[in-house]
Amino acid sequence: MEKEHTIRIFNVESSDDICELPFVGNLQAGFISPAADYLGDSIDLNKLIIKNKDYTFIGRIDGTSMVDAFLKDQDFVVIDRSLEVRDSDMVVVSVNGEFTIKYVSIDKDKKIWLVPANQDFHKVEVTPDCDFRIWGVVTYSITKHRR
C-alpha cells in the first residue's frame, strides 16, 4: 500500500500585485481550431482563482491517494474555507491532527466517508471517536506537467 496522502497548508499572501497573463482563448481538445494564432485579453489569476482572500489557502500534495483525480505528489490545490461542503466535494480535512485530502461522501444514513481517488486506498468512515474537522473545499488544482 502507498503512503497515506497528506497535505501541507500555506496562506495566500496579501498583495496588491496583479498577476495578469495573456489569454489565448478556448483551447480545443478535439480538432485543431483555425484561430490558433489569436491572443486575446489578459486574465487576472487572482480574480479567477481567489474568491475570498481571507479564507483561501494553498496546499501542497504529499502522497498518491488522489492520483485518479489527477492530483499528483507535489501538486498544489486552492482551498476555500468559506464554502459550505456538499456531498462529493473534494475537501481538506483534519483527522486526528493531520491534514489529508479526499472526496467527502454522505450516505443515506448520514454517515460521512472520506473517499480516495486511488484504488490502492480504502474509503474511511468518520466515526464519533475521530478528531475530525472539515477544513475547506478544494476549488482548483495546479499541476506541473514538465518536471
Order of helices and strands: EEEHEEEEEEE
What is the average per-residue confidence, as pLDDT, rounded to a whole number?
83
CATH homology superfamily name of the domain at 6-13 and 52-142: Umud Fragment, subunit A
CATH classification, class level of the domain at 6-13 and 52-142: Mainly Beta
Q: Structural class of the helices, strands and pairings?
A: mainly beta
Query: What kind of oligomer do you see?
Result: single chain
As a whole number of angstroms, the C-alpha radius of gyration is 18 Å
> In DSSP terms, counting alpha (H) and pi (I) runs of 4 or more, how many helices?
1
Helix content: under 10%
Report on this model:
A hairpin with a 5-residue loop joins strand 7 and strand 8 (112-115). Helices cover 3% and strands 39% of the residues. The longest helix is centred in the first third of the chain and has 5 residues, at 45-49. The chain has a domain at 6-13 and 52-142: Ribbon (Umud Fragment, subunit A), CATH 2.10.109.10. Strands 1-4-5-10-6-7-8-9 form an eight-stranded antiparallel β-sheet, with no helix packed on it. The chain has a two-stranded antiparallel sheet with strand order 2-3. It has 147 residues and is mostly beta strands. The chain has one helix spanning 45-49; strands at residues 6-11, 20-22, 42-44, 56-62, 76-80, 90-95, 98-106, 112-115, 124-126, 132-142. It starts with 5 loop residues before the first strand and ends in a 5-residue tail after the last strand. The model has no long low-confidence stretch (mean pLDDT 83). The radius of gyration is 18 Å and the shape is globular. The protein is built from one helix and ten strands, in the order E-E-E-H-E-E-E-E-E-E-E.
